[in-house]
Amino acid sequence: MSALFPTYARSALSFERGEGAWLFDENGERYLDFGSGVAVTALGHSHPHLVEALKAQADKVWHVSNLHRIPGQERLAERLCEASFADRVFFANSGAEANEAAIKLARRYHYANGHPERTRLIAFEGAFHGRTLATIAAGGQAKHLEGFGEPMPGFDHLPAGDIEAVKAAVTEETAGIIVEPVMGEGGVRLIDPGFLRDLRALCDDKGILLIFDEVQTGMGRTGRLFAHKWSGVSPDIMSLAKGLGGGFPLGACLATEEVGSTMTPGTHGSTFGGNPLAMAVGNAVLDVLLEDGFLERVSETALRFKQRLAAIKDEHSDIFEEVRGQGFLLGLKCTSSISNGDLVKALAAQHLLTVQAGDNVVRLLPPLIIGEAEIDAACEKIEAACETVAPAAAAASA
Ligand SMILES: *Cc1c(COP(=O)(O)O)cnc(C)c1O
């Protein structure tokens, strides 16, 4: 029996070290990592520039608290603002915490502007915003809320894509709208860029705030630094985490000056958020992502991968219904003849690591640094896994 909370249905695999897109178990067997620790290790494992940055900071100072200035924070905040719509940044340790900051900020902004009644956020069905009490209420999924008492009030859930429904749901108490540009956990569901533009226009019209949860989609995952850049509209508030620290726990809430400046001293805080180790790694991740041509290469490589996957889907239409997603946030939607969990296991048996998502989807989230050789290897492993599950799938659909 394990001494851990039984919160996860873990595989039996355990890894000792990693190198680029590969993980090695204790027997020296290697696995191609197309899960990236759920979209976290954006630059793969043991990236020399990240290792160097962490080691160098470890020799200087690890932690000082936010009672003092942290130069690495100021630098990373300035660079994130330079690369985005934002003027202000709050650092946290995770995606849920980044969203907590975003939710508090949306309420506080209206409070500071004489509208303390504006506390409610419109959120979308199938969303995922984290596992704290506020963020499970924001996600609104019954399976995450069950057994944890009355959900935190203040969230109204609507189907994504229906702008008329959103317009009708805005009241005097609405503070803003929170949305993931691509629903990752929800099954790699792309939100129509036109809908994001309609939300922007509605928020401007009503004087409410648009929040993009880019915890999974941000930091180059879709081929742009932030997924909303594909839509041409910017939010007022954005949460980041996952790829931001490349594997070091790091989250951030970004906002415009008008909004972010309402979080005055004492309104929010975090003991660990933005500590020097996290900042050293975060700055190092950004060094690589902002290199000339890096994101263009991600887009091109990802497009070729998606085309390869589409061909595999056509060949195995008994197993796959659709290839979804953008950049290296890709999903294989399975037919009803097979469960995504079984396919993830079959892929792991071929030494390809992937991640389940909602809507019977298998997520492919390779590190952004992968090249053609790894894509070839992954496609071969997917084909091989298809051969092993095909008889069962054929029997199920017969
Ligand atoms: C993973 C995720 C979160 C939660 O992040 P944690 O670091 O697990 O708290 C929030 N929002 C989105 C969109 C995510 O993908």
TrEMBL record:
Cofactor: binding comment: Binds 1 pyridoxal phosphate per subunit.
Coiled-coil spans in chain: none
Residues annotated as binding pyridoxal 5'-phosphate: G95, A96, F128, D213, E214, V215, Q216, T271
Keywords: Amino-acid biosynthesis, Aminotransferase, Arginine biosynthesis, Cytoplasm, Pyridoxal phosphate, Transferase
Residues annotated as binding N(2)-acetyl-L-ornithine: R131, S270
Enzyme Commission identifier(s): 2.6.1.11
Annotated Pfam families: Aminotran_3
Compartment annotation: Cytoplasm
GO MF: identical protein binding; N2-acetyl-L-ornithine:2-oxoglutarate 5-aminotransferase activity; pyridoxal phosphate binding
Subunit structure, as described in the record: Homodimer.
UniProt similarity note: Belongs to the class-III pyridoxal-phosphate-dependent aminotransferase family. ArgD subfamily.
UniProt-recorded name of the protein: Acetylornithine aminotransferase
